Amino acid sequence: MKVLLVNGSSRNNGCTYTALSEVSKALNNNGIKTEILQLGTEPYRDCIGCGACRTKNPGRCVFDNDIVNILIEKAETSDGFVFGSPVYYAHPSGRLLSVMDRAFYSGGSAFAYKPAAAIVSARRAGTTASVDVINKYFQINNMPVVSSCYWNMVHGNKPEEVYLDKEGIEIMHNLGSNMAWYLKSFALAKENGINHTVLGNKTMTNFIR
Questions:
Q1: How far apart are CA 198 and CA 45, in angstroms?
Q2: How far is 169 from 175, CA to CA, in rounded Å?
């Protein structure tokens, strides 16, 4: 079993990476393989709603010159996910949201029914709102949301300060342990013929009569 952790920070070894690394350690200690995917400093275009991922290039984004389709490919062979983001202006990083918009819209089936978690890092505030934004990607895609013993956040202005947030580090460790339990439970269920519910067609409505 493998969990893909996505670092939505432009700093490959910053506070968000530090938090993700602690989740990764807990997963490894529970026998789960991990990979951290860095978004880095490259620019990422937003989804333009062209629909090509439904017609011309099913399951992949039509813009094939950045990390989005690589993320989808890795998602197909992953069993769970952790998406991490710094908090600058009381919301997740714009680069992470652009990547998630395109990856989940074009390649949502690669993520569906697999457990996922959001973690955020902030100097001070904006954390709970940011976790909520990321969690909504999972909730729209039939993905179990993994929690910990408190909201999934760490505080600090630089990596060494994150380690001083002892509660935050504990939250990351517990999150990794909970994720491992989810994955092992789901694997055992599948071995015994218990699979997720087969859903019917999705009805799309609006408020215009």
A1: 34
A2: 10
> Each residue of 105-126: b (16+ CB within 10 Å) or e?
bbbbebbeebbbbbbbbbeeeb
* DSSP string covering 31-47: T-EEEEEE-TT---PPP
Instruction: Give the tens place of pLDDT for each residue, 164-203.
Output: 999 999 999 999 999 999 999 999 999 999 998 878 788 8
Whether the Cβ atoms of residue 76 and residue 114 lie closer than 8 Å to each other: no
What is the mean pLDDT of the segment spanning 86-110? 97
Residue-by-residue DSSP string for 116-183: EEEEEEESSS-HHHHHHHHHHHHHTTT-PBP--SS-SEEE-SSHHHHTT-HHHHHHHHHHHHHHHHHH
Report d(CA 202, CA 200) in Å as an integer.
6
Query: Rounded CA gap, 36 and 187, in Å?
Result: 22
DSSP state for residue 16 in the 8-state scheme:
H
Q: How many helices (H) and strands (E) does the chain have?
A: 6, 5
91, with CB counted inside 10 A (0-12, 13-18, 19+), is middle
Q: What is the pLDDT of residue 106?
A: 97
Q: What is the mean pLDDT of residues 50-68?
A: 94
Closest C-alpha among 146, 156, 142 to residue 181: 146
The phi and psi torsions of 183 (rounded to 5 degrees) equal: -60, -45
